[in-house]
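Severity: low
Component: inverse-folding endpoint
Summary: output formatting inconsistent between runs
Steps to reproduce: submit the following structure tokens with default settings.
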């Protein structure tokens, strides 16, 4: 993976490295952390970037119908397309977690742009059942 293209930055959540400095993430870990940050931030939470984020929280009380799962997948695709240009999202599948009634699993299949290394990120989303 080309470190110059992906870059490096503070890890998310912020942490301390083994030598006592600020923990830094690089490569695929950095992109996955950035994607998680996009999905975990609601638009309006960042004063200087008010449009940044994803509207996932709008679906907390929507249940887990097929229409809701499709709406969540569309929202995730749109948010990542807008805010994480280093990742090319190929598919987003949203499924209820068989082990936890209040959790949906958002499975994002993607590649780093310019690479031929398919990856996936599973992001948990907690909802209130109908």
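Observed output (run 2 of 3):
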């Amino acid at each position: 993976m080309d470190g110059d293209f992906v870059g490096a930055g503070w890890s998310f959540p912020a942490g301390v490295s083994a030598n006592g400095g600020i923990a830094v993430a690089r490569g695929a870990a950095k992109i996955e952390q950035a994607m998680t940050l996009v999905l975990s931030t609601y638009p309006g939470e960042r004063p200087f970037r008010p449009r940044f984020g994803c509207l996932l929280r709008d679906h907390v009380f929507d249940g887990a119908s097929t229409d809701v799962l499709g709406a969540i997948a569309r929202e995730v695709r749109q948010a990542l397309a807008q805010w994480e240009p280093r990742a090319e999202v190929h598919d987003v599948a949203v499924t209820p977690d068989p082990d936890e009634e209040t959790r949906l699993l958002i499975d994002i299949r993607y590649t780093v742009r310019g690479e031929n290394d398919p990856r996936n990120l599973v992001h948990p989303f907690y909802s209130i059942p109908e």
